[in-house]
Amino acid sequence: MEIVEHIRTNLGEIRNLMLSLEDIHFTFRFKCLSGASIGQHVRHILEFYQCLFETGNVICYDDRKRDIRIETNQAFAIKVIDTILTELKLVGEDRSILLRSNLSAEPYDNVYLSTSLYRELAYSLEHSIHHQALIKVGITQLCLEDTLSENFGLAPATVRYRNR
Questions:
Q1: Whole-model pTM over 0.90
Q2: N or C: which end of the chain has fewer CB within 10 A?
């Protein structure tokens, strides 16, 4: 399935970046990112995939675990990426799932939306690219742009547009 290969490539980019970063770069909190670190963005990306693979027929990204080890320990985060890559090998046919989400600041204001596994995989990939763009801001602040692949943090549509 094509979506799985695109996700594998995307997570590979993140994994490769992490292998090139010092721990201090991974956990540094950037003022330009509202005090967030690269590690926090990586955690956020990975937890959406974890949430998707750990769910049954109802998924709720709001209820993800928020495991601090992912944002503070690069070796642990790489293991999480490897686990997600393994989970992706097991993705079979598309299936219907229900998305539960609270789209307001008020508690207990849940909405339920019909979706599918493939749609949520596509969403998670787009979500990852968005956060990679923010990671790229931090990497630029560190003057480490040479650690990034050419299209890191760029949406495929942007790459296609720039190449025409």
A1: yes
A2: C
Question: Which amino acid makes up residue 27?
Answer: T
Tens of pLDDT, residues 86-119: 999 999 999 999 999 998 888 888 999 999 999 9
Q: How far is the C-alpha of 99 from the C-alpha of 112, rounded, in Å?
A: 5
Q: Can you give the length of the chain in residues?
A: 164
Measure the CA dihedral 83/85/89/95, to 10°: 90
- The b/e string for 64-79 (b: 16+ C-beta within 10 A; e otherwise) is beebeebbbbbeebbe
Rounded CA gap, 22 and 74, in Å? 9
- Contact, 70 vs 103, CB < 8 A? no
User: What integer is the mean pLDDT of 33-54?
Assistant: 96
Q: Which residues of 125-144 are buried (b: 16+ CB within 10 A; e: fewer)?
A: bebbbebbebbbebbeeeee
Tokens representing 143 are 């003057």
Give kind and range of the element (H or E) at residue 37.
strand 36-37
3-state secondary structure of 104: coil
Q: Residue 17 has which token pair?
A: 């970046």
Residue at 25: amino acid letter: H
